[in-house]
């Protein structure tokens, strides 16, 4: 056991309902770079917010969190540890303001208003179960599409068992354990799956394993069903009202949902999760599915079940934790190479993911299984991961800059923290650097360093990210690890940061990619 090994003894951080969030004006709609004038940039860089409460962990370490806005020193300089530079930050004229973090980055800024204690633990990939989860929260984001859907019926109420065809439903009522759905573009053939078990939860979904009832098509024999969780604000029947806030929340949810579905539908890569079908075709055929479905039944929120390819070995964070870290070099290299292929495919198709993290890398096989076929030809013919969770993805035009401040706290790039327009490709490669570092070091790069002083622990993650304040511990003397170069060239300032193609060309990735038969 080394000094890091205990970090995996903690249970996986559950995803959570998060703090309400004060969206700024520009949280209302994502703008392109041309929309953001100099004055706004200055404002983003110079506003100082002073909500500086601290919170105490059970270890009695008082650690301010991202929610509690911090102000960076002025000028903000890179630390001597920052790889490859000594220059001052481009933002060095102003202090950094970090607006209070929003509930989740899914453009649902005001959906959830359940206050969470803001606690953090030190140098771990996840928080202990007895803390309110906060590790995997997402940052504030802005609505990227039209806001209000005026046509949402003002008399809306919620309900659990909506069926869009309920007036003339030709199907039998199979009960809660049976899912009725359609494969994409096969809308004339209703298929049935039986529930097997719950396999995961996110902020906005529960994920369940279902198996096909007729078992004829092996591709859909076992499927992961991502079931949309409507936020309390929409589903609490007592709170339903006709306010613009309600309509806005619903409309944002609809925008986020349709974007995820449309992008997923368009993707076809072995290392990316597949949308196989849906419980109701309207979700993928309509641009305003909630509007359309609630137009029929305005009092009920329609269930949305995305039928996805199933990765039986769960997510990478859980798998790494379950074995207490210490992944072998070859395994890290293989998993990372596939992840790079997935992101390269997305970027080539003008899509940025914006929520790359260990939890969103799904494993098709356990580590033991992968090890067992390592020397067989299957190893080269079969992908071992699928990238998931496209709830924050975005299709972008050439050279379009993003303004939505979204992602997950530990993986977010400094420029997103800054609140200035950013290149989504480079924010994705930053997150890849965080993932690779975490796999090598069994800790997140911007956690307080091992043996940190109380003062260091009190410093927020965002502060360390903005200062590029990370370093090698376990690999400090390992000059031969070719993967280190990727981390050093991604966890760096954006004008020096590697693009996905450069990562792909690195020997760490290329030597693996060249052996694969499926890419
Ligand atoms: N296709 C799948 N196969 C196996 N497990 C899955 C699959 N999809 C999701 N999961 C599990 O469910 C969890 C939540 O899924 P996902 O991240 O897609 O939900 P979400 O609501 O979008 O989450 P988040 O709060 O991170 O945005 C994953 O971390 C994973 O453990």
From TrEMBL:
InterPro entries: Kinase-like_dom_sf, Prot_kinase_dom, Protein_kinase_ATP_BS, Ser/Thr_kinase_AS. This is Prr1p. GO terms for biological process: intracellular signal transduction; microtubule cytoskeleton organization. Residues 1-53, 148-174 are annotated as: Disordered. Keywords: ATP-binding, Nucleotide-binding. The keyword Amino-acid biosynthesis does not apply. PROSITE patterns: PROTEIN_KINASE_ATP, PROTEIN_KINASE_DOM, PROTEIN_KINASE_ST. It comes from the Eukaryota. SMART domains: S_TKc. One of its GO terms (cellular component) is cytoplasm. It holds the Pfam family Pkinase. ATP binds at residue 226. One of its GO terms (molecular function) is protein serine/threonine kinase activity. The keyword Transmembrane helix does not apply. Residues 1-12, 44-53 have a biased composition (Polar residues). Residues 28-43 have a biased composition (Basic and acidic residues). Residues 165-174 have a biased composition (Acidic residues). Residues 193-509 form the Protein kinase domain.
């Amino acid at each position: 056991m080394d000094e890091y090994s205990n970090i995996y003894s903690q249970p996986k951080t559950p995803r959570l309902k998060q703090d309400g969030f004060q969206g700024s004006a520009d949280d209302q709609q994502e703008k392109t770079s041309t929309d953001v004038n100099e004055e706004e940039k200055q404002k983003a860089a110079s506003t100082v917010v002073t909500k500086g409460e601290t919170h105490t962990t059970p270890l009695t370490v008082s650690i301010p969190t991202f929610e509690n806005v911090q102000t960076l020193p002025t000028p903000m300089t890179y630390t001597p540890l920052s790889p490859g530079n000594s220059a001052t930050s481009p933002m060095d004229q102003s202090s950094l303001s970090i607006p209070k973090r929003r509930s989740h980055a899914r453009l649902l800024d005001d959906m959830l208003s359940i206050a969470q204690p803001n606690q953090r633990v030190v140098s771990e990939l996840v928080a202990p179960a007895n803390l309110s989860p906060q590790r995997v929260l997402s940052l504030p984001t802005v609505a990227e599409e039209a806001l209000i859907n005026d046509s949402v019926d003002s008399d809306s109420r919620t309900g659990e068992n909506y069926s869009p065809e309920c007036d003339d439903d030709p199907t039998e009522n199979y009960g809660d354990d049976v899912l009725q759905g359609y494969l994409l573009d096969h809308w004339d053939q209703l298929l049935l799956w039986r529930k097997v078990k719950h396999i995961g939860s996110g902020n906005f979904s529960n994920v369940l394993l279902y198996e096909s009832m007729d078992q004829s098509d092996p591709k859909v024999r076992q499927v992961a069903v991502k079931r949309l969780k409507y936020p309390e604000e929409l589903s609490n029947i007592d709170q339903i009202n006709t306010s613009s806030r309600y309509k806005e929340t619903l409309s944002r949810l609809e925008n986020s949902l349709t974007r995820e579905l449309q992008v997923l539908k368009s993707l076809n890569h072995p290392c990316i999760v597949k949308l196989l079908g849906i419980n109701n075709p309207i979700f993928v055929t309509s641009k305003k599915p909630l509007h359309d479905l609630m137009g029929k039944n305005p009092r009920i929120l329609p269930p949305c079940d995305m039928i996805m390819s199933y990765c039986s070995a769960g997510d990478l964070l859980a798998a790494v934790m379950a074995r207490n870290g210490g992944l072998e070099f070859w395994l890290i290299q293989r998993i990372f190479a596939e992840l790079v292929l997935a992101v390269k495919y997305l970027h080539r198709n003008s899509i940025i993911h914006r929520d790359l993290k260990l939890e969103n890398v799904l494993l098709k096989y356990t580590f033991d299984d992968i090890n067992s076929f390592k020397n067989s030809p299957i190893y080269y013919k079969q992908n071992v991961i699928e990238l998931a969770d496209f709830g924050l993805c975005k299709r972008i035009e050439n050279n379009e800059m993003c303004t939505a401040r979204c992602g997950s706290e530990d993986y977010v790039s400094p420029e997103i923290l800054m609140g200035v327009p950013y290149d989504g490709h480079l924010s994705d490669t930053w997150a890849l650097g965080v993932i690779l570092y975490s796999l090598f070091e069994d800790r997140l790069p911007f956690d307080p360093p091992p043996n940190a002083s109380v003062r260091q622990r009190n410093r927020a993650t965002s502060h360390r990210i903005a200062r590029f304040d990370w370093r090698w511990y376990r690999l400090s003397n390992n000059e031969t690890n070719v993967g280190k170069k990727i981390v050093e060239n991604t966890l760096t300032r954006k004008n020096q940061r590697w693009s996905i193609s450069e990562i792909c060309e690195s020997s760490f990735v290329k030597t693996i990619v060249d052996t694969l038969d499926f890419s």
